[in-house]
Amino acid sequence: MAFEVEARLAGHVGTIRWVNGRVEGDPLLVAHVQSLAISLEGHWVGRPMCPGSTHHHLAHPFSVVALFYEAFDQIDAWRGDVPQAPPVPPGAIA
Question: Largest CB tally within 10 Å, which of 20, 58, 72, 81?
Answer without folding.
Answer: 72
